Amino acid sequence: xxxxxxxxxxxxxxxxxxxxxxxxxxxxxxxxxxxxxxxxxxxxxxxxxxxxxxxxxxxxxxxxxxxxxxxxxxxxxxxxxxxxxxxxxxxxxxxxxxxxxxxxxxxxxxxxxxxxxxxxxxxxxxxxxxxxxxxxxxxxxxxxxxxxxxxxxxxxxxxxxxxxxxxxx
Length: 169
Prior knowledge:
Elements: E1 10-13, E2 16-19, H1 24-28, H2 36-46, H3 59-70, H4 99-114, H5 118-125, H6 148-160
Antiparallel strand pairs: 1-2
Helix pairs in contact: 2-3, 4-5
């Protein structure tokens, strides 16, 4: 059994600063593309107890966690947990994390827009993509009805003409 390192408050894993005071599985959730289920599977595959704090891990254990996060399909992580199953371009199953995931999602959306698929058209118009109702929800950014500026101008005009309610003069 190797000797435990002294506690470290911040540990860098996969390009992100993770809080050393949190449990290992919860600390890994800071990484983009890692949810609680995948984090627990990675910790289990690394052979680390779940109740261990991230700051108490040795350099070797942190390196093992990072290696499994980079290539979870090579470990005991099941394929259904991965976020890039049957990639349309390569046909491979992989898991993307961090900026790789962000770039790939952006590329996928741009491809949908370019080929003018239904989802691409919805993305380009700024509408809901996944079949949600849009009649009453998601109205942010679009004003309907009377604008505040016009209503205030009409009220001022009414006060000038003397048809006000007797408010301040």
